[in-house]
Each structure stands twice: as C-alpha cells, then as structure tokens.
Design goal:
about 350 residues; alpha+beta; 2 domains; 8-stranded mixed β-sheet; 4-stranded antiparallel β-sheet; binds iron/sulfur cluster
Length: about 350
C-alpha cells in the first residue's frame, strides 16, 4: 500500500489542474444541502458538511437514462452514451461499499449480465474517497461493516489528519495519477499511519446505534419469508405507515430496480427507449399486463424490501444490500426506515 500526504491548499490546486483535463464531480453546498455536482470553480468543493442526500449512484445509473433512439423505416439504433473521463471526488466509505454492490448487480457475476450503460460510465470514472471523522446522527455504516473508514473500492482514499490529508493509493490508475503529479505529494511517515488508526478508533466510538444486524438477518433467514417468525400483523402495521412515496428507494445507493419506457413522437416516426428508476414500494411495481399483481398489498411490498436489503442481497450478491448511509432515515415520513424496522425485528 502506497501512503502519501498532501497539504489542504495543494489538494485544491491538484484538483484544479485535473479539472482542466477531465470532468470533476465533487460535493458542493447548495440551497437545501450538499449535493454531488460537476464544477468549474474549485472553491465550491465542500468536504465539511457530511454525505450528500443524493448518492454517487446517479453518475453510473442515472434516474432517467436514454438507452437509444429509434427511427421508423431505417430502424436504426443510436446509442447516446458519453465516454468522457471523470473524477468523482469526496465519496464516503458507505457509498464506496454501495458502488461495489452496484458493480456486482450490473455485472455478469452472480447470474446477472454486464450492463454497458453502467460499465462505460464506471470504467471511465476515477474514484477519490474520503474517510469520515464524524458519525452523523443517522449513520450506521459501522454496523454494516462499510465504514467509517474504507478498506477498498477507491483509486485514492483521503483521511483528514491534523494539518494535511493522508492519501492511500488503491489501484493502478491511482498509482499512475500520483506518479504523474508527484510534485503535489510527500511520503507519509509511520506516525501519520498511527494517527489515522487512532482517528478510526475514535470515530467508531461515536456511533450511537447499537442494533446487531447479523441477528436481524438470521431471524429473517429463519422466517424464510413464511411469516413463521415475523408475523403478518407486524408487516401489516409497517405497511400501514408507508406512504408509497418511493423516497427510500430513490435516495438508497444500493437500490438498482428500474423500469423501461418507450416514447415516440405523435406520428410514431421517431422514438427513444428510456430507463427510469423504479420503487418496489410502488403499487405498480409488480403489476403484470394481465392486471395480476403479487405486490398489490403495501404489507407485502415493504416486507419484500426489508428482506431484499437485509437477506436476499447477501444470498444473491454476497454483499449486504444496506451500507448504513442513513439516507432513508432522513427521508421516510412514515418513520419506517430500515434501521427502525431492523430494531423492531431484533426486539421480537
Ligand atoms: S420513504 Fe418511507 S413512506 Fe416512503 S416509500 Fe419508503 S418506506 Fe414508504
Ligand atoms: S437502506 Fe437506507 S441506510 Fe441502508 S443503504 Fe439504503 S438508504 Fe442507506
């Protein structure tokens, strides 16, 4: 593992230089909170305000995505994907873990298929992560094993130390980049590594949520979706509190369900195929052309979501479907976010 340091001022100059050659996406402060955006002005970088509500997933799997255009007669497909190089800077460890989950979901591994729309963007994006020194009120990455410090998934990983950033190189593109811009970096000392370890231990102690998610997963596994362990009345109560808004799905960095929509002009001469995010909480999510709908009941939909996040994802992708980012805790009006439900299942 190559360990370097970079001073704060020099980090901004480094990013500014990179920005001349490539798109740079960073956390910025906007009305209503922090968000990831492509920037022109380097002074807009904001690493102080916690994790943006919208996750980096949007840059690989956008909320609405044109897959191709169609023209009647010639029947031509025109793919619209950009192959531009990008740097996504300031990703938190939970979101790096979520990207690992999405990588598996959109790849051939685990019985899937390679999704070119995802992978063209993913392979053209360089990831710079940053470790968290503060446990936000809603965060529980520590319980999911995805934070507060990242172990993998980055090209470069930063840890804010007292006077500068410690930089860990996590890939050969990362190695190549720091070698090309070596004048910005200095070698780290053993003391810098120790400081990082101390900070990690200190941050872990800040997390206030105490749920044992493995025990919850074991209970779900024992239930096997049968209702033998967690009765239908429980899911009924939870379902009654769900407003079908889909907010939890939209903010979740690991939710990967989508719908396909074909649009044409009035004369049906020119059209496009769109991919749009879907929500397993919507009543139409599993509705079939015949009108039959195995998920017509809110109770069944929310139950499926919880099983998907805490059990099925581990069985299918070999990774937890919840990385503890805390976003659904912020947006759920029904107060039935994943952590609250997990807590209630644990208490049963
Ligand atoms: S955010 Fe809450 S209320 Fe909205 S769909 Fe999700 S569980 Fe239901
Ligand atoms: S289920 Fe909630 S806490 Fe877990 S990864 Fe999704 S949004 Fe984050």
């Amino acid at each position: 593992m190559i360990l370097l340091t970079i001073e704060r001022e020099r980090l901004l100059k480094f990013l500014n230089e990179l920005k001349r050659e490539t798109e740079l996406i960073v956390p910025v402060q906007r009305l209503g909170g922090v968000t990831f955006e492509q920037i022109e002005d380097i002074d807009e970088v904001n690493l102080l305000e916690g994790n943006p509500l919208s996750s980096p997933k949007q840059f690989f799997f956008p909320q609405t995505d044109q897959l191709f255009q169609l023209r009647k007669g010639a029947f031509t497909f025109k793919e619209k994907l950009k192959r531009k190089k990008r740097i996504l800077f300031g990703i938190r460890p939970c979101d790096l873990a979520a990207l690992e989950f999405c990588d598996r979901f959109f790849s051939r591994e685990h019985g899937g298929y390679e999704d070119i729309y995802y992978w063209i963007r993913r392979r053209n994006t360089f990831l710079v992560g940053i470790n968290c020194l503060k446990a936000e009120e809603n965060c529980f990455c520590f319980l999911c094993g995805s934070g507060p410090f990242a172990r993998r998934g980055y090209d470069l990983q930063l840890t804010p130390l007292e006077d500068f950033y410690l930089v860990e190189v996590g890939s050969s593109p990362g190695d190549k980049l720091v070698s090309s811009y070596s004048h910005y970096f200095s070698a780290a000392s053993p003391g810098d590594r120790r400081e990082k370890e101390t900070l990690e231990e200190r941050t872990k102690k800040e997390f206030s949520h105490k749920i044992d998610l493995q025990k919850v997963t074991n209970k779900l596994s024992k239930d096997g979706f049968s209702g033998a362990v967690i009765k239908n009345e429980f899911w009924e109560e939870i379902g009654d509190r769900c407003l079908d808004c889909g907010g939890c799905n939209y903010v979740c960095p690991t939710c990967t369900c989508f719908s396909i929509l074909d649009k044409t002009d009035r004369n049906i001469e020119v059209g496009e195929r769109m991919r749009i995010w879907d929500s397993c909480n919507f009543s139409g999510f599993t509705r079939m052309a015949s009108g039959a709908n195995p998920g017509a009941n809110k109770r069944d939909r929310i139950k499926r979501r919880v099983f998907c996040k805490l059990l099925f994802s581990q069985e299918n992708q070999g990774l937890p479907g919840c990385v503890g980012c805390g976003r659904c805790l912020k947006v759920c009006y029904g107060e039935i976010d994943i952590l609250r439900i997990a807590g209630e299942i644990q208490a049963k």
